[in-house]
Amino acid sequence: MQLISFLGFTIFVAIVAYLSTRKTDENSEDGYFLGGRSLTAGVIAGSLLLTNLSTEQIVGLNGQAFTEGILVMAWETLAAVAMVVTAIFLLPRYLKGGLTTVPQFLGNRYDKTTKTIASALFLSGYVVVLLPIVLYSGAVAFSAMFDLPTVLGITRIQSIWACVWGIGIIGSIYAVFGGLKAVAVSDTINAVGLLIGGIMIPFFGLAYVGDGSVSAGFAEIMNSHPEKFNSLGDSAASVPFATIFTGMMLVQVFYWGTNQAIIQRALAAKNLEEGQKGLILASFIKILGPLILVIPGIIAFHIFGDTLAKPDEAYPKLVSQVLPASLVGFFAAVLFGAILSSFNSALNSSVTLFGVDIYKEYFNTEASEKQVVKAGKIFGVMLAILAMFIAPLIDNAPAGLFGYLQEVNGCYSIPILTIIIVGYLTKKVPAIAAKIAVLSGVILYSISQFILKPKFVNEAIAKAEATGITGTELTYIKAAAYPHFLHVMAILFVLNIIIMLIIGQLRPRTESFELEYTNQVDITPWKYVKQVGILVCLIVVGIYLWFSPWLM
User: Fold this and answer.
1) What burial letters (b/e) apply to 301-333, b meaning 16+ CB within 10 Å?
2) Which three-class secondary structure string do you get for 191-238?
């Protein structure tokens, strides 16, 4: 029965995705890369959420909540604010310029080399970090949650290999051969399923704790672990409260406003109004994110305590403990959809970046749209195979996979965000400034996090242990030994902006940059976007106040 419900839902999604793309010209650049610029608000919102939501978040963020509590909701609630910023500030400019990729703007604003550098940074981040980690974390979660080694009679690593290749092959079919519209439509259906399935876990978890009563279960957890419901992290937390005002918002704006794998959905909007509605709708739903990505981790802490080997086991263990057997097949299908979504979305964006920004620029400048699409598909197949070979090799990945992923992403996220923001807000800053900012951003962040930070932290630990300091006190000493990576991002962001502005004063462009309107879509804004955006921001502030020590 479980297998039938799993296959039934998965096949249903595939059929609907196929039917939705039959009238789209998949041989044209707009048709394949942007779904014919035809996406409506609901599809954009669903695809945004499913592209974002996968096992590295479902498992990783709940693992952090298991350890630290509700303070890690910053990764979810502040995303809503970043979507509002994107809807009001960035999206109108993207659609006015008729962009297919974010680096296209950099090519128009600066020069072709800057565009290529940005595309290469995006692709390297996807190849080295995102695609393999999505495949690996999905395989681990799927294997552990449903005990596939026992069911299939194979070893754990064999199960991981099988899951990686199963997810990778199906995801590649969606992304490489179906184009963006197939990805977006399948994401939208899976989004509905994941919201239902995701909310089921805390519901059954709280009912389990409260002997059948959800409200009694919630009261039991709050009374037993009040420290887990403090939204303001201290200096030793993975998200100190101060970082909300520094690097956290920069990371969120980069992710939701400039990351090709995410913003490509909004670039495919049929007009600006639909794009803005889609982003705002997604921001409202994102506010509910902690129900799926944080609360289950706290419930798991109450049920399992310190018995788990690693925090990242919290969510899989909770699912197997509280979910009725009759719903396992459905939950497996929506989880499979979430894993597929992040993989095929990143892969589809990689195909887009390569085809539009690299192949057409350097390999065949006279290529027809059909040739560009074909080259992108070939590249996508090669990339998917490479990711599927790499993913199982991450089996010794560090605990706290979500935090690790966020820190590594800083190598390219802040440099790209810097040159985009300066590009839109200034008219005279030249291309050389962007190149220097990207280079200095990547090099300085890498030196900071992978050379200086280990050195200072290891020296602090050695001194502390020599004096007999252990436990919580040692944790605070480690945190004080070096600035949090989100603070480092903010420092480098400001530094690189200053560098770019100075260069702009010393060697300005000969002509001021003007963003041309390409007339690809109607850019009349949604008349309520600012009012509703402000409401979203106020709700986020209210959530923080509600779970702060001042009101609790």
Assistant:
1) bbbeeeebeebbbbbbbbbeebbeeebbbbbbb
2) HHHHHHHHHHHHHHHHHHHCCCCHHHHHHHHHHHCHHHHCCCECCCCC
> pLDDT tens, 199-221?
889 999 999 999 989 999 999 99
Which residue type occupies 406?
Answer: Q
Q: Which region among 150-159, 296-305, 390-399 has the lowest average model confidence (pLDDT)?
A: 390-399
Domain coordinates of the chain in residue numbers?
A: 2-395, 404-513
For the ranges 102-116, 129-143, 253-267, 400-414, the lowest mean pLDDT is seen at: 400-414
∠ Cα 240 50 422 (to 5°): 60
Instruction: Report how far apart, in Å, the C-alpha atoms of 432 and of each of 119, 380, 437, 506 are.
Output: 17, 31, 9, 11
Structure tokens at 482: 């070096």
Amino acid, res. 169: I
Q: What is the DSSP letter of 517?
A: P
What are 233's strand-pairing partners? 240
Q: Which CATH superfamily is domain 2-395 in?
A: Sodium/glucose cotransporter (1.20.1730.10)
Tell me how far apart the alpha carbons of residues 454 and 460 are, in angstroms, rounded to a whole number.
Answer: 10
Q: How does 247-269 read in b/e, with b if 16+ C-beta sit within 10 Å? A: bbbbbbbbbbbbbbbbbbbbbbb
pTM of the model: 0.81
Helices 260-267, 178-209: axis angle to 10 degrees equals 110
Average pLDDT score over residue span 291-306? 91
